[in-house]
Amino acid sequence: MTVEMQTDQDIKKYAQQVDEPQWFTSMRLKAQQEVEDLTLPNFQKIQYHSWPINATRKLEVGDHRLTDEKLVTEQANIVQIGSKVIQKDLPQEFMDKGVIVCDWATALKKHSELVEKYFMTMATEPTENRLNAEHVAHLTSGLLIYVPKNVILKHPLTSYFFQDARQSRDYVHHLLLIADRGSEVSYLENTGTIGTKPCPANIIEEVIAEPDSHIKFASVDRLGENTTAYLNRRGYLKRNARIDWSMGMMNDGNIVGDFDSELVGEASHAEVKVVAISTGDQVQGIDTRVTNYGQHSLGNILQHGVILARSSLIFNGIGHIIHGARGAEAQQESRVLMLSTKARGDANPILLIDDNDVVAGHAASVGRVDEQKMYYLMSRGVDKKTAERLVIRGFLGPVLSALPSKEVRKVLADMIERKLVNGQKDE
Amino acid sequence: MATLEVKDLHVKAKEEEKEILTGVNLKMTTGEIHAIMGPNGTGKSTLSETIMGNPNYEVLKGDILINGQSIIGLPVDQRARAGLFLAMQYPAEIPGITNAEFIRAAINSRRAEDDQMPIPAFLKKLDHTLKTLDMTEEMSERYLNEGFSGGEKKRNEILQLMMIEPKFAILDEIDSGLDIDALKVVSRGVNAMRGPKFGSLIITHYQRLLNYIKPDVVHVMMGGKIVKSGDAELAVKLEDEGYAGLRDELGLDVKLVDEE
Ligand SMILES: Nc1ncnc2c1ncn2[C@@H]1O[C@H](COP(=O)(O)OP(=O)(O)O)[C@@H](O)[C@H]1O
Ligand SMILES: [Mg+2]
């Protein structure tokens, strides 16, 4: 496949069309120049370099009209297809308290300064690797969420992001979530795909926790079977801030997930919970890192995954404590359970400790379903597949029960069941 | 009326060479309670596990039939749905699923998709059964066997038995590790199941349990086969004379693991 490269002229043309601010266009042009010189990010044991993961197509204003798909039945505050918002229904409280929730075009137009301050300036950078640079050069959709100082939100915000793969196009999507000083917000994100064309997805999500803020970030990712995805979620935590990540990797295609928390501020705290299920022939590589810069910062990683059929799941857990982060703590546990002999799984704990006065620990395991348990369950009459799902539920239980929200627990449990039932058809 | 029949059953463990069961014959019908007594290591658990369909055992010869139909080719879950239940000597612990949830899944596995047991009916039955077994509601909400004491696990096996209502229940040393009060409770449960639609094969090392659950037939197993059958009196006699006595009386060449 030869794709005509995107030129500077293409970027300028698009910028004019959507009327984006000059600073953003300059950033794009700079990123585009860097793309060729940058390499793909490396993640241990995750081999994805030959995947069709690169965003290459020229920027265009997509037409994301819906024909007859019923996309959302559950309560959703924001639904986006490609770059287009098709549903926006915010809790009254958000309006009353001056919370900003808007799509990317609006964010650039109306909140340019805010975006300029935070967009890939702290949590990650355009030139960090090739996929990041492609992201900036090809970005067409996204969402900005800003919670003002000291605003405590009672209602969670639920979003749905659908990649539009009804035509071949790159899905390049950005989330910028900022919780300003002393604020609290709970956010539940659902990603998915409509259409079946093989397409890359390049999603970068920055979650900025200003001092004393608290963010509960939950996600259920269900990108399609023919999507090849780079999903980069970055938390940037200032003094005394906290992020609770709860992520369900329920995608059907190949994906690299890079989930990092930069514990910059003193006593900042990240809890990272991941459950993943791989089915069919897919590969899911998940690289979860906490980096302690701040003194007395705390990062905990807990990730459990299940592998069916001929699929693969790789969990890297990285605890990095920077010199000077006295009293910091990094803990991690990664476990995978394989249900078939053709499944491939890995759980790699990686500890990089540059300071003495710290606490760090890790646990990792790769195992198979316990035959004794299966026999016991089946001896009461439940069939093999149901018994497997029960054992899996038990295996994922420690992560699910540690999630901070009951709603999220329920949503995830349902998704897990669904993905497992589907995956088992292919055993 | 249903029948369970074991014919000239020869069995070995999957990874081993040696025959453990060397030709077991047994026939029972619903409405009856049979006891199997025998010294340690004689193959009682092997017999129960093989009837249930534990994949660790391999049938070398013989057959197992329910109502004249061989079940030897069936996996364990199908045997369960055909009416078999095994209260295991060492029940597995399964975190993440509660007792109540599991029992409901087990009951519903026997029913059609559009005829699942309604929750109120289930809860009512569960409540009643818990009471019979002196169990608290809290125990039904705990994860399946997780962290249960030996005695609690045994009670929990009987709870499942009573909820599922199988045609034939094999109880493998349900009395081991139970004090006298727990023994009475467990026996009360089994006796409550007694009736024309239920048969039970009670495996025990000691006669004591049979004071509480009166068997119709007693079999003695030694050296991997049944060497003598009789009525309840046989158990009493065995208690007095010991396995060694019976062995010598029958002139058997069997070595007892723990001569008593
Ligand atoms: N899974 C197994 N693998 C190997 N040997 C076994 C296995 N199960 C039973 N055996 C052996 O078979 C014999 C009978 O054991 P078992 O059936 O447990 O006896 P009982 O229940 O009468 O005490 C013992 O010698 C035991 O070691
Ligand atoms: Mg035994």
From TrEMBL, chain A:
Family matches, as Pfam families: SUFBD_core, SufBD_N
The UniProt record lists the SUF system FeS cluster assembly SufBD core domain at: 168-395
Which InterPro entries does this UniProt record tie to the protein? Fe-S_cluster_assembly_SufBD (IPR055346), SUF_FeS_clus_asmbl_SufBD_core (IPR000825), SUF_FeS_clus_asmbl_SufBD_sf (IPR037284), SUF_FeS_clus_asmbl_SufD (IPR011542), SufBD_N (IPR045595)
Residues of the SUF system FeS cluster assembly SufBD N-terminal domain:
78-157
List, alphabetically, the NCBIfam families matched: sufD (TIGR01981)
What PANTHER family is this protein classified in?
A: FES CLUSTER ASSEMBLY PROTEIN SUF, UPF0051 PROTEIN ABCI8, CHLOROPLASTIC-RELATED
Q: Which family does it belong to?
A: Belongs to the iron-sulfur cluster assembly SufBD family.
Name of this protein: SufD protein
Species of provenance? Ligilactobacillus acidipiscis DSM 15836
UniProtKB/TrEMBL annotation, chain B:
Q: Which Pfam families match?
A: ABC_tran
Write down the superkingdom of origin: Bacteria
- Write the record's keywords in alphabetical order, separated by commas: ATP-binding, Nucleotide-binding
What Gene Ontology terms describe what this protein does at the molecular function level? Answer: ATP binding; ATP hydrolysis activity
Q: Which SMART domains match?
A: AAA (SM00382)
Residue ranges of domain ABC transporter in the record: 4-248
Q: Which family does it belong to?
A: Belongs to the ABC transporter superfamily. Ycf16 family.
Q: What is this protein called?
A: ABC transporter
Record the organism: Ligilactobacillus acidipiscis
The opening ranks of the lineage are: Bacteria, Bacillati, Bacillota, Bacilli, Lactobacillales
